[in-house]
Amino acid sequence: MVHAGSMYVIQKAERTVVEMELENGAIGLGDCWGTPEVYAMAQSFAKGWIGKDALDRFALRSATLGKSNYDNKYGRNGRAAYAGLDLAAWDAVARSLKMSLAELIGGRTRESVDVVSTLPAAILPKAGSRKDLTDHLDLRANTRLVVEFALEQVRKFGFRSFKLKSAAYSPEWDVKLLNELKEALPLARLRFDPNANYGPAAATALCRRLDHLGLEFFEDPTGEMEGLARLKAAVKTPVATNMWVVKDEQLAPAIRRQAVDVVLGDLFMWGGIDALRRMAKVAHAFGLKPALHSVYETGIATVANLHLASALPEVEYPNDASLHFMSADVLAEPQTVVDGKMTLPKGDGLGVTLDRGRLDKLAVESAQLR
Amino acid sequence: MAAPASIEHTHVHSIRLASGAEALAARVRIAGGTQGFGFTLNDDAGLARDMAAWDALARSKGVPLAVLLGGFHGKQVKLEWDENNPALPPDWSALRKGILDNKFDLLRIDPFAWGSLEQVTTIAAAAAAFDLGIALLAPNAHAWEIQYCATLAATFRGEDTRIIVRSQSSFSSIPVSTQPGIGIDWTLEPAFQKIQWQS
Lengths: 370, 199
Description:
The complex is a heterodimer.
Chain A: E1 2-4, E2 9-10, E3 15-21, E4 27-33, H1 36-49, H2 57-65, H3 75-97, H4 101-105, E5 112-119, E6 122-124, H5 130-138, H6 143-157, E7 161-165, H7 171-184, E8 189-193, H8 200-210, E9 217-219, H9 225-234, E10 239-241, H10 248-257, E11 262-266, H11 267-270, H12 273-285, E12 289-293, H13 299-311, E13 319-321, E14 341-343, H14 356-362
Parallel strand pairs in A: 5-7, 5-13, 7-8, 8-9, 9-10, 10-11, 11-12
Antiparallel strand pairs in A: 1-2, 1-6, 3-4, 5-14
Chain B: E1 7-16, E2 22-30, E3 35-40, H1 45-61, H2 65-68, E4 76-81, H3 92-100, E5 106-109, H4 117-129, E6 133-138, H5 143-153, E7 162-165, E8 173-175, H6 190-193
């Protein structure tokens, strides 16, 4: 099956898996983007971490990414690579302290977390060209394939929350599909995510047409903070972003501009647990709702997001999740969706173990640093 | 975020400090038997218990509190004499409005007035997001207050972070404890040593 999203057709996911061993023998796991750039940065950063104190995370961040964002010459990729190491350090420290990661972050307040199933903008019979996609989208009856896919997710996993991606090719397609989804799944929570591919005017017009559906939120219906702010003022449905508020210094302007209602924090865009935790607290204090974004992580980061949701009472929305779409994972313990929820593993740290055989089968490249 | 620990027993005691002032001292015992201690020179026993629970948790893990709050940002904190500027009242609405109206460069916070560690760390996160400094007021300049402020301030981002006191001090900065717990030297007050804690 081929899933068409807003910006891509997804056939594989590349990740960098980090395994970090502390002096006391505790091993932590991390996971971050797997592009060659991020993989190279993660390796380079890791060299600088050897011999450093894993408890001293501010110093590690400062030494890796600089004291301020101005100093961060690595940009978003650098924050993602850092987040992979950061997660492994938190996991290793939590294991050393004999606490679950959620407890170390702030408290294990729940054992399971509602998760969201992404719905592709379209489902094509096979991979094809952009023209194949637009031809497919021109045939409005094809919306039915996405609705059937959603119903299948309910049957297989019990999902009650869905995120519909949009190719932003046709507002008519999106309106028809969302109406059909609402009809087929009247009790489900639906969010709509065109990844800012509609211009502000088109997005506002489209969202006004969708406003009566009572969606959970519009996620990045258009681009840039100003466009989002104008759109937000024009609709009742909450507006969310995981694209325009993705680092510390964007949060205050978003609050001041009243640009969004929901900040979908992504562990890798924000650059680690501490930044995400601060974002959740500040967003909540100023009346915004923090939520957790994800896109095709391994089980490691998927489980990390469960711990974050459990530890951060400010997070009320279901977590994004996409592990159920992956044909393979690197963990020994399968992480499954049951009744629309995922359960926090028991045990210290993340509570999961790496399956080296599975990792070896999937590995493209590996490096060991001492 | 109360301390993520299972509390088995708490006890709050009133003591007379060497200065003659009254303080509340709290002891919390968490699952596993570790004890932690907290205090306040105001009448908020909840704050003393909150502090004690964090102390117990950090002691039980053998780490300074900073580790549970994300790590040390610094291990020495500036100490300033600030006789006149009032601390912001413990009112989130006023704080939010003041921040959004650009009323502050520095958030002067009395951590003993806000009721819990969680409140103070959230204010510190807001200060970081809005690029504001944060100053923690030790309202009575008692050594315990200064030590607790230092423990919290060590986890805050920003060069403007400081502790403020209302009387002159011979120190311009103080070191942050790296001992397990919240970093308070309880031996400084003889009355604390004499407390008969209930089991």
